[in-house]
Design brief:
The chain is of the alpha/beta class. The chain has helices at 2-29, 35-64, 73-79, 103-111, 140-149, 159-183, 210-223, 244-254, 277-285, 342-354, 376-385, 391-394, 398-402, 409-424, 448-452; strands at 86-97, 117-123, 129-132, 197-205, 232-239, 264-273, 302-309, 318-322, 326-327, 363-366, 395-397, 428-432, 438-445. Keywords: Membrane, Transmembrane, Transmembrane helix.
């Protein structure tokens, strides 16, 4: 409504300026206007100016529309990655988002097609409530008080970063307990140096302050309290775009296995969040927030997710086969963008590489939300490859239920798909669609040994 009133006032202002200028000109030139003059100067002229302004604004928006051309440095590394699919083996996953407190609950929310609700605290600068996928049970004031007591600097006290740091710690704690249980199944190491090493690879948004990132890494390390501190390592990875998690997983899968190397357990974590009044105000100013006047805007969300990778000679729960990365011909954020055929070809080749028949796939889980072509892309893949799937029930979009989760979206999707695969014992296809230009897929399946067992 506010936008309509604003445009209406601009139109009235244009007519007023034109009429005032024409009337002054007639008075100064002592011209007696005819009916034709009145129609031409008082109506046709301002309408022509309006048409010119409208056409100019359309051209300007078209020029500024995002293009699928050169990706950032991090996505360029993906495009240069070898085309051969790579594999990872997982023991356990963990996730927490607005749709659920763990991966199983999030998977259930996707199956029930739940959506974010109006948030009780977040509002637009105009005072209107907005939809948001807030993780319940996270106390902002308590987190702020603890951070102040610990001496956190002001640039590490933003609500969004405090909340995500707490979520990352929760996921790190859960997966460390899983690793601890598996590592001590046969016997508890008597000496500290006999414990295998535990390494955390933590994806943190690159736009966080240095202080906020360091505090998050410290929280992850502290959450792994059941593991000897001297045997824990934490590595930071800056997430500069939506493909950061894909790049990291490919790097880990490509690392050579050294038979003489010291035993090591590895946990990959990612967290991001936008449940913050300042973030909402910024999105509103950039017209990227979902409102009644901007149905293609984002829904603020928050999430943390993690994967516990299986060390060599350890029985895995699921196998993740990662496809190569392809590039769209047209940006998914451009006006009129549609689903493109190469994504279905990518999924088909991935299934062939993994040795899985299309009719064996039980679900498609993507990180898509409601914006642009993203909701249609999984449906096109399903219609071309998986005639047995019900598009309404078997094509699930994490972004629709959990809101915009930024750097965590891809890992969150894999965690939910892995949990689903372990529950139903059937392969699940995932699609990474958040980036405007780049696309990838992954097939989550049970290892042959697990299936036989």
């Amino acid at each position: 409504m506010a936008r309509v009133l604003k445009k209406g006032l601009l139109v009235l202002a244009l007519f007023a300026v034109v009429w005032l200028a024409v009337i002054i000109w007639w008075q100064e030139s002592r011209t007696l206007p005819t009916g034709v003059d009145i129609g031409l100067y008082l109506f046709a002229l301002p309408l022509a100016l309006l048409a010119a302004f409208w056409a100019g604004s359309r051209l300007l928006r078209a020029a500024r529309a995002p293009k699928a051309a050169p990706a950032p440095a991090q996505t360029e590394a993906l495009a240069e990655a070898p085309p051969r699919p790579v594999e990872l083996h997982l023991i356990a996953v963990a996730a927490r988002a607005g749709a659920g407190a763990d991966a199983a609950a999030i998977a259930e929310a996707l199956a029930e097609q739940k959506r974010p609700e109006l948030d009780a605290e977040l509002k637009t600068p105009q005072g209107f409530p907005i939809f948001a996928a807030r993780v319940p049970g996270v106390d902002d004031m308590a987190l702020y008080s603890v951070a102040r007591e610990q001496g956190a600097p002001p640039d590490a006290l933003a609500a969004g970063t405090l909340r995500v740091t707490a979520l990352l710690a929760d996921i790190a704690r859960a997966l460390t307990h899983d690793a601890h249980a598996r590592a001590t199944e046969q016997d508890v190491p008597a000496r500290e140096e006999d414990w295998p090493r535990l390494r955390f690879d933590v994806l943190i948004p690159a736009d966080w302050s240095e202080a906020a990132r360091q505090r998050a890494l410290a929280a992850v390390r502290a959450a792994a309290g059941v593991w000897p501190d001297a045997r824990i390592g934490v590595a930071e990875h800056l997430a500069r775009d939506a493909m950061a998690a894909d790049l990291l997983l490919r790097q880990l899968a490509a690392e050579p296995q050294d038979a003489k190397a010291e035993p090591q357990w590895r946990i990959v974590l990612a967290g991001d969040g936008y449940i913050d009044p300042e973030q909402v105000a910024q999105w509103d100013g950039l017209s990227t927030l979902l409102t009644h006047a901007n149905p293609q805007g984002r829904v603020p969300g928050e999430a943390a997710a993690g994967l516990l990778l299986a060390p060599p000679d350890t029985e895995a729960g699921v196998r993740i086969t990662l496809s190569p990365v392809i590039q769209r011909q047209k940006s998914a954020d451009a006006r009129g963008a549609q689903a493109e055929a190469p994504l279905a070809d990518l999924a088909r080749n991935l299934l062939e590489t993994a040795g899985v028949a299309p009719d064996g796939v039980a679900h498609i889980v993507s990180d898509a939300d409601h914006r642009g072509s993203r909701p249609l892309e999984p449906l096109i893949v399903a219609s071309q490859l998986f005639a047995h799937l019900d598009a309404g029930k078997d094509c699930q979009a994490v972004g629709v239920a959990c809101g915009h989760t930024g750097a965590a979206a891809s890992l969150l999707t894999l965690a939910v798909a892995s949990e689903t695969c372990m529950q139903i014992d059937q392969p699940v296809l995932t699609l990474t669609l958040q980036d405007p230009a780049l696309r990838s897929a992954a097939l989550v399946s049970r290892p042959a040994a697990s299936v036989a067992a």
